[in-house]
Write a structure and sequence with these properties.
Shape of chain B: globular
Strand order of the largest sheet of chain B: 3-2-1-4-5-6
Oligomer: heterodimer
Helix content of chain A: 10-25%
Distance between the termini of chain B: 54 Å
Largest sheet of chain A: 7 strands, mixed
Radius of gyration of chain B: 24 Å
Largest sheet of chain B: 6 strands, antiparallel
Strand content of chain A: 35-45%
Radius of gyration of chain A: 24 Å
Number of strands of chain B: 17
Structural class of chain B: alpha+beta
Chain lengths: ~475, ~450
């Protein structure tokens, strides 16, 4: 066990268990009730989460908010069945009541016993700090105001600037029925600038930001925060000149970094363990098959230093890892949590995640990206006679059963005779995950990860994630513009 | 099955008086800390949901959520805080957090409580609370019946994502320092089913659901299962389309989304930020002359019904679009003041938006479409409210001679919402009751469809 894991466990015990007067004996009592015959596994998830948000608009700091959310989720698993209950009161009677409800999926009768408690392991990817305290309120406000001033200074066409700053101090403790106690302290910050520019009555927006698992001082390093403002202005002003996007199927070159949302939608969700255990994914039963062009190696990696999608342990107490999903085009593995791993006869890959104590864990992505390839990005552009070059995206969505996925470009250009020409308006791109991956004909040598802005939604649960990719070329993808 | 424990976990909502005391405590504490005005909302929700897959219980979940949110004003400076902890000392701490924040926010003359003369004086009973005394065993039985019908519908139905039944009850209380203190209870129940069909190597899934405030008004389990299977089967063998321009018929379950974009564009936040393609369109022709859109907040048992909005402002029936002309915006107190107008009782959104149905049923709408695309599912977020640019992933059916010809997928539909509203040719009377926006199918001319 690392020192960080031990420290985190001690810290979280002090913050959550001790104020509630909960001892290890009490946890044993709860498990004694939870572990009915036929219950294969159970866990308790304690959480205390503090969040703050500040918003500047019209040049003034309009809103600020703080919230405290804490509670405990209780889960019992019997075969494929899961029973779940939670309480926002961390006290023994509430825990016992929740365990009674959670174990209702199994037969009643003699209760089981728990092994002796032992501390679980974990990685040391970020410091156990409270980011909310990393700057004073005055410093946070000064930061927002600087970005507002910078955006307005850059271009007289900037009409509106909205700057938001948010931080989360999340403490969790997982007690598993195998006797492991694991804890994590997870800082997360996010800064964003949105700009509206106007020219002759036409208005367009631009947006940029970043974040990760550190304190707010990250944004003060060099010109990082100012660059968000500059980037947002650049996008908004560029969009003022954008023409109608084309409609139809054509070669598409995707820029590096955030356009990796392609991978998240086209293959990421389809390789989550639950869909494959149930056989509802278009990738189900295809391990060892070729599912992408040989240029493609895709990994999910929860172990990257201070990244938004990184975790020292997942929400079941399993340390995160680097999981190869696709290697040189061949499907290698799925992302697993405990339940689906057990039912598929394998082990968790540290991808068991949940939005909060009030939600059930399931297999989720962490940071998902494609490794760099051999091609020079310039060469990739030059290879396209007529197509689209898309460098910024909004969100995406996938139907994991049919494999059809979409993602929406917010900054894109036409490629004509191997050259980037005019900017085009935002448009949705649509394709079939398994097909699109086989049509990746060039992969750049310029792998980039996104700036720390992604949030993934699944079954109504949101978790922070990362994506990344090098520049890549898809030979045929459908572009949903309006121009013939 | 431990039925008694299941019921205990679902034990009723707290009495309204208990929550009113918490709100009063928060407001008094805010005053004590020097706030010139304050408002607080408290909510408690309890629920039970089961998911059954291939005849077996997949998940059984008991929900119990609660929260208190406090906003304080020091003159025109605002601060907010919230907590899930209802203990007295925690509520005081929450108020202190809000006050600490208000010391750092800026003076903004538009901030403040709702105008007192707009507050709801009477709280109409809208018949929104019909709790379901349902134990887990019964819930499982209903979900199992529903899924069984879907699985048995056809040999091509090869797999299932399961059937889910959920029931929720909730209570909200809101109060502010202008002597407003009121609350009401609501319930919401739903049953859904999603199955997978296979033909050759291609799999398709689709679903159906029913939702109501009243258990007895839910569609029966067999019907939900049958429709889920029918919808899935109809999608098998889907093809792509050649890129073209054609009229598009939005089935009622997706037509709701088109009107949701309209609401976004006439919402105060987008208007005062000048981030709407319908900026300065009040009194202007936005839809063709036959279109009438109302907000009906007091529909008994309505899924979007509410006696007052999130600031205590009385909700009222009103006309938003008459003869195609925009008659009103969707405003909270803050956005109204920014625009020099008055709140429309829409802090938190609209309450039952109703577009007047036309003459034709769904069959009639297909005839009216004659040749074009019927959209039954949309994907992605490709909508820009600032510009009206619209581009979304779609699947559905190609229609020839007013009849469904074949299923289609992996296409996009695109246009500009301002043009799309003007090109609305007809509204069906096939109204989908399952939401806050009540509309029949919508037929829109001249959309760009991108495909092969």
């Amino acid at each position: 066990m690392t020192d960080t894991a031990a420290n985190n466990l001690q810290l979280v015990r002090q913050h959550i268990l001790e104020p509630a007067g909960l001892t290890e004996r009490d946890l044993e009592r709860v498990f004694g009730q939870l572990m009915a015959p036929g219950v294969d596994a159970a866990d308790l998830y304690f959480q205390a989460s503090r969040h703050e948000g500040w918003v500047l608009e019209d040049g003034i700091v309009k809103e600020g908010s703080r919230s405290l959310d804490q509670g405990v989720g209780v889960r019992a698993i019997s075969g494929e069945k899961t029973g779940f209950a939670y309480s926002d009161e961390i006290i023994l009677p509430a825990l016992l009541e929740a365990s009674g409800a959670a174990r209702a999926i199994a037969r009643s009768g003699q209760s089981g016993r728990l092994q002796a408690w032992q501390a679980g392991g974990g990685l040391s990817l970020y410091a156990p700090i409270n980011p909310l305290d990393s700057l004073t309120a005055e410093e946070k406000i000064a930061l927002l105001q600087r970005l507002d001033a910078e955006a307005r200074r850059l271009d007289p066409r900037v009409e509106q600037v909205i700057v938001s700053l948010a931080g989360v101090h999340d403490m969790i403790l997982v007690a598993n029925s195998d006797g492991r106690l694991s804890a994590d302290v997870r800082p997360l910050v996010r800064l964003n600038v949105t700009v509206i520019a106007q020219q002759n009555g036409r208005r367009e927006t631009g947006s940029s930001g970043g974040g990760g698992r550190f304190g707010y001082e990250y944004f003060l390093e060099g010109d990082r925060a100012l660059n968000y403002a500059r980037e947002a202005v650049r996008q908004a002003v560029l969009n003022l000149e954008a023409v109608e996007a084309p409609a139809g199927t054509m070669p598409v070159v995707l820029g590096p970094g955030w356009p990796g949302v392609l991978l998240h939608e086209a293959v990421g969700h389809g390789l989550e363990g639950d869909f494959n255990r149930k056989g509802t994914s278009a990738f189900a039963g295809r391990i060892s098959e070729r599912v992408a062009s040989p240029l493609c190696t895709v990994v999910d990696d929860g172990t990257l230093d201070r990244r938004r999608g990184s975790l020292n342990i997942d929400d079941e107490g399993t340390p995160t890892q680097t999981t190869v999903l696709i290697e040189k085009g061949v499907l290698k593995g799925y992302m697993q949590d405990n339940l689906n791993a057990r039912l598929m006869g394998t082990v968790s890959t540290g991808n068991g995640r949940r939005q909060s104590y009030a939600h059930l864990p399931m297999p989720r992505m962490t940071n998902t990206y494609m490794l760099a390839g051999p091609h020079d990005p310039e060469e990739i552009i030059r290879s396209v006679k007529k197509g689209l070059y898309a460098v910024n995206f909004g969100g995406g969505q996938v139907d994991i059963t049919s494999g059809k996925f979409v993602f929406s470009a917010s900054e894109a250009y036409l490629i004509e005779d191997g050259r980037i020409t005019v900017p085009v308006k935002g448009a949705t791109l649509i394709g079939s995950g398994p097909e699109v991956m086989t049509r990746i004909s060039m992969v750049g040598n310029d792998l980039q990860l996104d700036g720390g802005i992604g949030t993934c939604g699944k079954d109504g649960q949101s978790v922070p994630v990362g994506v990344g990719q090098p520049t890549l070329k898809v030979d045929a993808l459908t572009v949903g513009g309006t121009a013939a | 099955m431990l039925v008694t424990e299941t019921k205990a976990a679902q034990a009723g909502l707290p009495p309204q008086e208990t929550l009113e005391e918490l709100v009063s405590l928060a407001l008094a504490e805010a005053r004590k800390q020097g706030a010139s005005a304050a408002e607080a909302g408290v909510g408690v929700d309890i629920g039970l949901s089961v998911n059954v897959r291939r005849g077996e219980v997949d998940t059984l979940e008991h929900q119990r959520d609660r929260g208190i949110g406090v906003t304080v004003y020091f003159g025109h400076r605002k601060g907010s805080a919230s907590s899930s902890d209802f203990r007295r000392e925690s509520i005081i701490e929450t108020v202190q957090s809000a006050c600490a924040i208000a010391r750092h926010t800026s003076e903004d003359p538009c901030q403040g409580l709702a105008d007192p003369d707009l507050l709801a004086r009477e709280i109409p009973d809208l018949d929104l609370y019909h709790p379901w005394d349902l134990d887990a065993e019964e819930a499982i039985r209903i979900a199992r019946d529903c899924e069984a019908v879907a699985l048995a519908a056809d040999p091509r139905i090869c797999n299932s994502d399961g059937a889910s039944l959920s029931t929720y009850s909730g209570i909200r209380v809101y109060g502010n320092t202008n002597d407003f203190l009121a609350g009401y209870k609501t319930s919401r129940h739903s049953l859904s089913c999603m199955v997978v069909g296979k033909e050759g190597d291609a799999m398709q899934r689709d679903y159906w659901y029913t939702v109501s405030r009243v258990p007895e008004e839910l569609e029966d389990a067999e019907s939900v299962g049958r429709k889920a299977a029918e919808r899935t089967l109809k999608r098998l063998g889907a093809r792509r389309l050649k890129t073209c321009t054609a009229p598009v018929l939005y089935a009622p379950e997706v037509a709701r989304g088109v009107l949701a974009h309209f609401i976004s564009a006439i919402s105060g936040g987008a208007l005062y930020r000048k981030a709407s393609f319908l900026l300065d369109h009040l009194g202007k022709q936005v839809f063709p002359g036959f279109v009438r859109i109302e907000e009906q907040p007091h529909r008994p048992r309505g899924l979007g019904s509410a006696p007052f909005d999130q600031e205590g402002v009385a909700t009222r029936q009103r006309v938003l679009v008459e003869d195609g002309v925009l008659q009103g915006y969707v405003l909270s107190s803050y956005s109204a003041r920014k625009l020099g107008m008055r709140s429309t009782g829409n802090a938190g959104g609209v309450h039952n938006l109703v577009i007047q149905p036309g003459e034709r049923d769904f069959r009639g709408m297909l005839k009216e479409l004659d040749r074009g695309l019927l959209v039954t599912e949309l994907m992605g977020q490709g909508v820009n409210i600032t510009t009206g640019d619209y581009s979304r992933g779609a699947s559905g059916f190609w229609v020839e001679n007013g009849e469904i010809a074949y299923p289609v997928e992996e296409i996009t539909v695109a246009g500009n919402l301002r043009d799309m509203f003007q090109r609305l040719r007809a509204v069906g009377n096939d109204v989908d009751p399952r939401g806050n926006i009540l509309t029949g199918s919508l037929l829109i001319d001249g959309m760009t469809i991108a495909g092969e």
